[in-house]
Design brief:
The protein has a 6-stranded mixed sheet with strand order 4-3-2-5-6-7, with helices on both faces. The mean pLDDT is about 90. Helix 3 links the parallel strand 5 and strand 6. The protein has a single domain, classed as Rossmann fold (3-Layer(aba) Sandwich). The protein has about 190 residues and is of the alpha/beta class. The protein is globular. Helix 1 crosses helix 2. The chain contains 3 helices and 8 strands; from the N terminus they run E-H-E-H-E-E-E-H-E-E-E. The structure holds inosinic acid and magnesium ion. Inosinic acid binds next to strand 5 and helix 3.
Length: about 190
C-alpha cells in the first residue's frame, strides 16, 4: 500500500459528534468567561486566537457556539513540515497585536501532541502582558503533558486528519476526523 493512500480516511470521530462537542464547549466557555467579566461594561472582549492552519475549521464552528462577545484572530505555527512526527522545532510567525495589554486570551489548537506548539504560542503572547491566557485543544493525544484548559476529545496516539488537520497538506477539508488508510502510523 502506498504511504499516501488516496482512499478516504476511516472515520474516527463523525461530524455529528464533533458538532455536539463544539456546542458543549461553546456553552462551557460562555459560562466560564461570563464570570470573568468579558463583555460586561468596561471590560473588553475575549481574544480567541486560532492556531493556523489546523484550527481553522474548528475555530469557525466554535466561535458560532459561544454567546459572549469575542474578537477572532489567528497565529500561524508550524512544527511538522510534511512528516508525522513533531520536529520539536516550532516556528511561530510574528503576531500582530492591536489589542493592547491586559486582555483575556483563549488559544485554540487543533491537536495537542507534545504540547510544544501551545507552549510556544503562549510564550509568544507574554510580551503583550495578557490578563489571562487559557488554551483549548480539540484533540489530545495520550503523551501530552502540557496543561491545557479545555479538551474536545481524548484520542489514541495515531496520526489523524480531517476537520482542518492535514497529512502533508492533504485531507483538511473532511467534515470528520479520520485515520489515513495506512493506519495513521507515525513516521
Ligand atoms: P505538538 O506541538 O507536538 O503538541 O503538536 C501539535 C501540532 O502538530 C498541531 O498543531 C498539528 O499541526 C500537528 N499534529 C499533531 N498531531 C497531528 C495529527 O495527528 N494530525 C495532524 N497534525 C498533527
Ligand atoms: Mg496545528
Amino acid at each position: 500500500m502506498s504511504s499516501r493512500d488516496s482512499r478516504l480516511p476511516e472515520v474516527l470521530i463523525p461530524a455529528e459528534d464533533i458538532a455536539r462537542r463544539v456546542t458543549e464547549l461553546g456553552r462551557k466557555l460562555s459560562a466560564d468567561y461570563a464570570t470573568v467579566d468579558v463583555g460586561n461594561a468596561g471590560a473588553e472582549e475575549l481574544v480567541v486566537l486560532g492556531v493556523l492552519k489546523g484550527a481553522f475549521m474548528f475555530l469557525a464552528d466554535l466561535v458560532r457556539a459561544v454567546s459572549i462577545p469575542i474578537v477572532v484572530d489567528f497565529v500561524r505555527a508550524a512544527s511538522y513540515g510534511s512528516g508525522r512526527v513533531s520536529s520539536g522545532d516550532v516556528r511561530i510567525e510574528p503576531i500582530a497585536w492591536p489589542y493592547g495589554e491586559g486582555r483575556d486570551v483563549l488559544v485554540v489548537e487543533d491537536v495537542l501532541d507534545t504540547g510544544k506548539t501551545l507552549d510556544a504560542v503562549v510564550r509568544a503572547l507574554e510580551g503583550f502582558r495578557p490578563r489571562s491566557v487559557k488554551t483549548l485543544a480539540l484533540l489530545r493525544k495520550p503523551e501530552a503533558k502540557w496543561p491545557v484548559d479545555y479538551v474536545g476529545f481524548e484520542i489514541e496516539d495515531r496520526f489523524v486528519v480531517g476537520y482542518g488537520l492535514d497529512d502533508a497538506g492533504k485531507w483538511r477539508q473532511l467534515p470528520y476526523i479520520g485515520v489515513p488508510r495506512d493506519g495513521g502510523e507515525r513516521r
